[in-house]
C-alpha cells in the first residue's frame, strides 16, 4: 500500500511540466495573497485534527487504566462516592485557573447528586506547588482534605511552611502531624503516581477534567461547561 501510494504520487508529479508546476505555485501564491484566511483556516484545521487525535489517544489510555484513573485507593473522591457520573480533575494548588474554578466545582458537586469527582493533585509549577500539594494530601490523612484545600487555595499570603501551619491550625488540623505526614510515603507515592498518570495522557496544563471516558476538557471550564459535559455523559450512558 505504501509503495503503491508513493508510485502514484511520483507519477502525478512527473505528469506536470516545469512550466505547469510553476503556474500552479503562482496560482496558490496569488490565492493566499488574495485571501490570507486560506492559510490560517488550514492551520486551524490541522490544529483541531491534532487536538482530536491527542484527546482520543488520552481517552484510550484512561479506558485501559480505569482502576488507576478513577478507582485507586489513594484517590480523593468528592460528591457521591457511588455516583455514576465520574469526573477526574487534575489540578495544581498554585495554579490561578485551578483556584478560579474552585467555586464552580463546589457548586457542581452540590447540584449534581450523581457526580463522583475524583481529584488528583499534581505539583507542576515548582517547589511551592510541591509544598502545597503535599500539605493538601496530608490533610486528607486527617479527614480534612476539603476544608484545608479551600483554605489553602483561597489564601493569598506568601507560600511557606509557617503559612501551612497557620492554615492547618485554623481548620482544626494537628499541624505538627500534618508537617510530618507531608513527607510520608503515603503522600509522596500518591503525588508521584498522579504525575505519572498526567504524563501518560500528555496533560499540558491545569486544571484538566476527564468526563467519564468520553471527553477531556482542558483549562478553566465554567460550571455551565461542566454541566453540559455531564449532560452529554448522562445521555451516553
UniProtKB/TrEMBL annotation:
<dbReference type="InterPro" id="IPR041205">
    <property type="entry name" value="ScsC_N"/>
</dbReference>
<dbReference type="GO" id="GO:0016491">
    <property type="term" value="F:oxidoreductase activity"/>
</dbReference>
<dbReference type="InterPro" id="IPR001853">
    <property type="entry name" value="DSBA-like_thioredoxin_dom"/>
</dbReference>
<dbReference type="InterPro" id="IPR051470">
    <property type="entry name" value="Thiol:disulfide_interchange"/>
</dbReference>
<dbReference type="Pfam" id="PF18312">
    <property type="entry name" value="ScsC_N"/>
</dbReference>
<dbReference type="Pfam" id="PF01323">
    <property type="entry name" value="DSBA"/>
</dbReference>
<dbReference type="InterPro" id="IPR036249">
    <property type="entry name" value="Thioredoxin-like_sf"/>
</dbReference>
<feature type="domain" description="Thioredoxin">
    <location>
        <begin position="48"/>
        <end position="235"/>
    </location>
</feature>
<dbReference type="InterPro" id="IPR013766">
    <property type="entry name" value="Thioredoxin_domain"/>
</dbReference>
<protein>
    <submittedName>
        <fullName>Membrane protein</fullName>
    </submittedName>
</protein>
Amino acid at each position: 500500500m505504501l509503495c503503491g501510494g508513493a508510485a502514484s504520487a511520483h507519477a502525478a508529479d512527473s505528469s506536470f511540466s516545469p512550466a505547469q508546476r510553476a503556474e500552479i505555485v503562482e496560482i496558490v501564491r496569488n490565492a493566499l495573497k488574495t485571501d490570507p484566511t486560506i492559510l490560517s483556516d488550514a492551520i486551524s484545521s490541522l490544529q483541531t485534527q491534532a487536538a482530536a487525535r491527542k484527546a482520543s489517544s488520552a481517552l484510550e489510555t484512561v479506558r485501559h487504566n480505569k482502576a488507576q484513573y478513577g478507582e485507586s485507593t489513594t484517590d480523593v473522591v468528592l460528591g457521591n462516592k457511588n455516583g455514576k457520573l465520574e469526573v477526574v480533575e487534575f489540578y495544581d494548588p498554585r495554579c490561578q485557573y485551578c483556584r478560579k474554578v474552585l467555586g464552580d466545582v463546589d457548586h457542581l458537586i452540590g447540584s449534581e447528586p450523581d457526580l463522583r469527582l475524583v481529584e488528583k493533585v499534581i505539583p507542576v509549577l515548582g517547589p511551592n506547588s510541591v509544598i502545597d500539594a503535599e500539605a493538601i494530601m496530608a490533610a486528607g490523612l486527617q479527614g480534612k482534605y476539603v476544608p484545608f484545600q479551600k483554605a489553602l487555595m483561597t489564601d493569598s499570603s506568601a507560600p511557606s511552611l509557617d503559612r501551612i501551619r497557620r492554615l492547618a491550625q485554623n481548620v482544626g488540623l494537628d499541624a505538627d502531624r500534618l508537617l510530618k505526614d507531608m513527607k510520608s510515603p503515603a503522600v509522596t507515592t500518591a503525588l508521584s503516581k498522579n504525575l505519572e498518570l498526567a504524563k501518560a495522557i500528555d496533560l499540558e496544563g491545569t486544571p484538566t477534567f476527564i468526563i467519564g471516558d468520553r471527553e477531556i476538557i482542558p483549562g478553566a471550564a465554567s460550571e455551565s461547561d461542566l454541566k453540559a459535559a455531564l449532560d452529554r455523559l448522562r445521555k451516553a450512558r
